[in-house]
Specification:
The structure holds two protein chains of two kinds. By secondary structure, chain A is of the alpha+beta class. Helix content of chain A is 28%, strand content 23%. In chain A, the strands form four sheets. Chain A has a seven-stranded antiparallel β-sheet, with helices on both faces. Chain A has a four-stranded antiparallel β-sheet with strand order 4-3-2-5. In chain A, strands 1-10-9 form a three-stranded antiparallel β-sheet. Chain B has a single domain, classed as Beta-grasp domain (Ubiquitin-like (UB roll)), CATH 3.10.20. In chain B, the strands form two sheets. Chain B has a five-stranded mixed β-sheet. Chain B has a two-stranded antiparallel ribbon with strand order 4-6. The radius of gyration of chain B is 12 Å and the shape is globular. Classes of the chains: A alpha+beta, B alpha+beta.
Chain lengths: 416, 92
Amino acid sequence: MTQATPDLRALLARRRPGYTLEAPFHTDAGIFQRDLDIIFGRHWIHVGVEPDIAEPGDCMTVDIGPHAIIVARDDDMNVQAFHNVCRHRGARLLYEPKTNVGNLVCPYHQWTYGLDGSLLFAAHMPDDFDPGCHGLRRVHVRSLAGLLFVCLAATPPDDFDTMAAALTPYIAPHDIRRCKVAHSEDIIEPGNWKLTMENNRECYHCNGAHPELTRSIFAEGFGFAPVGAEAEAQAERFHTLVGTLHHDWEQGGLPSREIDELVGRPTGFRTERLPLEDAGESETLDTRVACRKLLGGLAEKRLGALSVWTQPNSWHHFMSDHIVSFAVFPLTPETALLRTKWLVHQDAVEGRDYDLANLTAVWHATNRQDSALVGKAGAGVRSTGYQQGPYSPDTEGLVEKFCAWYVERMVAGLDS
Amino acid sequence: MTDEVTQFTVEFTVSGRTIACDADQFVLTAALAAGLKLPFVCRRGICGTCKSKLVSGKYDMKQNGGIRPREIEGGMFLPCCSKPLSDLVIEK
């Protein structure tokens, strides 16, 4: 049985604020294609970190829906991005997730491109063939203090710089460029990419689902509002900590206060430096640093976790000793890839400065719990009994902001 | 009048052939002249198609991005743009 694609414009127009999206947004192939076109084809998409391509010739392949991309480090240490498609017969150039190359050589007929995308060599082409017209198609790429973003549109949203100006002072002390990727894992989540994002944007579910994560984080830092005397006491403790630590951290040169620009702009974002429980050092099982060598020039372990979110597809936690960075890529209407990277100082040595199992324990477990929850949400949404449910105004305001951003960007995309 | 040109031997371990290569001749050119079938495309050190493992010997390579420094450290070289500085043994 096939169903006609519903009228997207009408679904967007009748979206009820404060309620979950209607089922077709999470199941319909036609709407999924519009997501790929409008959201992932015309916005700044987080694809990785500079340490993914640390050295000249390093290349990383990323697939954003139908867009196959190479992100490369050229010989002048600039970051470049191209479509991963040969200009000759269209063959895919690179398949390896990470590789190091001299030039980019098409495996089909050896058309050879420099790391600036220019066509250097193509055998058997006539005298009037112009290599200058056959360079790799460029993709806009920007680094925000080491976080890499690409935009596939001819003219990207013009508000990247304002996001970078706001977030760079928060992120820079963690010095992503002098990190290495200690571990990376891909999970295919059994739900539409928006379900993965919505799940990330609230901590209503944390107490029930995440025993490892809640050893260190306060749900209150992610929009959770307490109910009942015990929860209120906990929230009071959190807010007292925020007041004290924000003051201390900012005195020490670490911007900490919340900036929430999630809606009302193409390149939505949010940040806040959040206290952690107990030792307060890191998102680990014992709340202490997992890596002895701290990031950048940091000397203090107890810096909580800097939370950074970008619309539509990323979130990041920056601690004094490591960074956990998450990117979501749509695969099919009902599956999404969650790519997680754990970063430590580039000079940290596994086994001496950090134990990989300890470093990754919390988010390795949390990712699996979240994936299972996304699967349950996906299974319910595709069932005939699904109808829109209300977000908690207290604890799911940031989910609402994700949906509101999505709807406003889709409406703007359909109108342009 | 004949110029004295230094000549080296180049042994290919897989094909079992040993050829002569002048000091001012590219290794690939000498191999092709001797009838060996080796993969190559650009002959200018750009595309890397002829990349080969050097078992022993010294060479002078003028490449153009077809091979990375770390590959060279790993014992690889490009016969298309390399001239011998000694006898060579190549895993090919």
